[in-house]
Amino acid sequence: MHSLSKGKPTSARKTVVVAMSGGVDSSLSAYLLKEKGYNVIGITLKLWDYKDVGGDLFKDGRCCSVESMNDARHICGQISSPHYVFDLKEEFKKKVIENFVNEYEKGRTPNPCIVCNTEIKWKILWEKAKKLGADFIATGHYATIEYDNRRKRYLLLKGKDPTRDQSYALWGLSQENLAVTLFPLGELTKKRTRELAYKYNLKTASKKESQEICFIPDDDYPRFIREWEKGQGTGVKEGPIYNLMGERIGTHKGIPFYTIGQRRGLDIAFGKPLYVLKIEPEKNALWVGEDKDLLKKTFYVSNLSWISIQNLEDKLECEIKIRYSHKPKKGEISRLTERNVLVKFESPERAITPGQSAVFYRGDEVLGGGIIDYVED
Fold first, then answer.
1. 167: helix, strand or coil
2. With CB atoms 3.0 to 4.6 Å apart as the test, which of 26, 34, 345, 355 could cross-link to 140 if both were Cys?
3. Rounded mean pLDDT of the chain?
4. Predicted TM-score (pTM) above 0.85
């Protein structure tokens, strides 16, 4: 049998709520937990309506579609488990979508999946799950949890499959969250997940995987932000683009449409490719330069959450990951306050971006993480 989060009891008397998107990962998670002897309750979250986020652009089968809910219900029927749909559209709008747009308006690049994990799944959903008698919550994330008796702490570790590891998106989980969480796929590769789904004849075995943000499946952020702000009665303004000499060399279409390291959409004729280096929302201005100018070493991180340590007392050498697709690189974190640290990479890294998460690792172990606040020039 496949390993679940180590250190947690497995008993037929234990009830687990499985967050089911209608995809293969959460489907297999529910199946494996049922096979393990848990009382499984499947819950699908209705987080947004197509009409609110540009429904004419999307196809069925995506997260929050009727098809995805029916797929989750079908899997629950197959394992003789109840299935419920919880409407959390208002909570998702306030906690995730509005934060997403507001951050872009401030010239920052947020990660809404991380906000959804901490604010929706492990807060609102878990509170509702407890009312159903749940002892645990489970998802299809590729990560693992262990309990360290020496430190008396739950540890969050990378998933076995390095191409699917999702520990980066889970740094905001508290000790209380980890104590009631199961990740049935943590010891599996994505390939093995598909194989088992076919073996158990799960309807979702061949379902296509979506890599986009769930409420922007077409991956067109400018389109989404433009339509969202129009619906809210707000808008964006054009502004200047400067080079590193302080010369105005172009006009941008609006601060929310750009992120650090972006090349496309600048519409500037120049001998070499230009990239966004800095965004100044207070001046409604962009600063651009060459690719080499994106290399930085030092930045500040706030909104810290520690997992394998209780707090950072002074300094610590570790590996640091600054975006989901980034390979962790060596550096040092230094305590500034209880909620802020200074981070220095050993070697410069490209496009360190305010608003993104910085997650600190020691091997496979997640020490903690926070939000990138400011990057030194």
1. helix
2. 26
3. 91
4. yes
